[in-house]
What does this fold into?
Amino acid sequence: MNINNLGLLNMLGAIINEEEDSSDKAISEYLLQHLETIESLTINEIVDQAFVSHSSLRRFCNKLGYKNFSELKDSFTDIAFPSNLHLREFEALGKYREELKLEITDMITDMNQMVDNQTIEYVVDLIYKHKEIFFISANNTTSNLLKFQQELFYANKIIRVINSNYNNDFINKISKPESLIFVVSVSGVFAEQVYDIMDEIKGQKILITANRNKEFINPYNEVIYLSEKDVNSDSLGALGKYGITYLFDLISEHYIYKYRS
It folds into this structure.
């Protein structure tokens, strides 16, 4: 899998949110409206139906980090979507509400045992002591990390969030002995994709995950597990949706309490 795939929805979302009446917006909307048949889409169909030129489609693919439309099309897999949507069975509202309430309650109890006050204190102190701090993730935790980044601004602390540009040259710029690097990958998919890159990067590297697979943890100095159970048992995707929000709320609140002057 191309590492760009894991930030693809971010890039398409940014185009739709920020651009007006552009070829890129027209292409993005057409692709998202035809996800179920995207494997059979042709270049000519997009050109005709989205009212764009062949050159516009080619530039669009290049802009997103793909060599051509075929490579971009192949990247639209279920795994690019957040909250384990590809693993879930969807229920009627009343049943889902009850299941989600129980799931969130159990998740918080589990997380409080795995990520205790001592761990939060440790992470907060690390962030305070380091100047070069990077949080790297795929699209499923982007909004949480950007909110966390803004909350730390309130305490005069600057961190960097890398959430869409996953090319090797860009990530390698963070490779410094004095860097503090957090990779947030609840499902473990993103951690697998950046394994080789993280293995070469210098700095103190910490993985935050709920995946108990030991194969991709070697590049890291430390691993913070969000749950005692493996992420595959999180059928509702509660850890990715609510667990990350809970974790970073604890970290930011304690950082501001302890270090805001």
In short: Strands lie at 133-137, 160-162, 180-185, 204-209, 222-225. The two ends are 45 Å apart (CA to CA). The longest strand covers residues 180-185. The mean pLDDT is 87.
